[in-house]
Design brief:
alpha+beta; 15% helix; five-stranded mixed β-sheet; 165 residues; three-stranded antiparallel β-sheet
Length: 165
């Protein structure tokens, strides 16, 4: 075990800001099997939920070192969301698939963060309903269909690569 905290929350906040600053839509992929994940179960598909966490889609967004929290709308129902940072497996922009994957196994190698405080907010998102086509995501906020690219198609940014260009 490494005696430092995981870089995941710092990278998620950085990607969120970078994507937002470039007028892209930040989405996160969440593994719902991890303890503490609070999301609407009707939108879970194959153990995952995809959430649009843009400022236009959620309210009271907080990306802390322990968890991502916000308030979202699902089928016009205000829903609080709580996602432990370790449950986030990717952050990306569907417009160009730029983003970053996170390993659940690697996250476990770091020192735990302080016990999470009680959630003060509620989350809302864009997600996939079970009865919808497997490749479509229905935005609860906008009702637009967005074709989901498999996360294996995300373009990962490598700092070493960008330094060489």
């Amino acid at each position: 075990m490494l005696d430092v905290t995981a870089p995941n929350p710092y990278l998620i906040r950085a990607f969120y800001e970078w994507l937002s600053d470039n007028s892209l839509t930040p989405y996160v992929i969440v593994n719902v099997s991890l303890k503490g994940v609070v999301v609407p179960k009707d939108y879970v598909n194959k153990g995952e939920i995809i959430l649009n966490i843009s400022a236009q889609s959620v309210r009271k967004l907080r990306i802390g070192n322990d968890a991502l929290e916000c308030i979202a709308q699902f089928d016009n129902v205000t829903t609080p969301l709580y996602v432990p940072i370790g449950a986030i497996t990717a952050i990306y922009a569907p417009e160009n698939n730029l983003g970053m994957n996170f390993s659940l196994e690697e996250y476990a190698n770091y020192r735990s963060v302080i016990t999470p405080a009680k959630s003060k907010t509620k989350l809302a998102v864009v997600a996939k309903k079970k009865e919808k086509d497997e490749n479509d995501i229905v935005s609860a906020a906008s009702k637009k269909k967005v074709i989901r690219k498999p996360k294996t198609h995300l373009t990962l940014i490598d700092s070493k690569e960008s330094e060489n260009t």
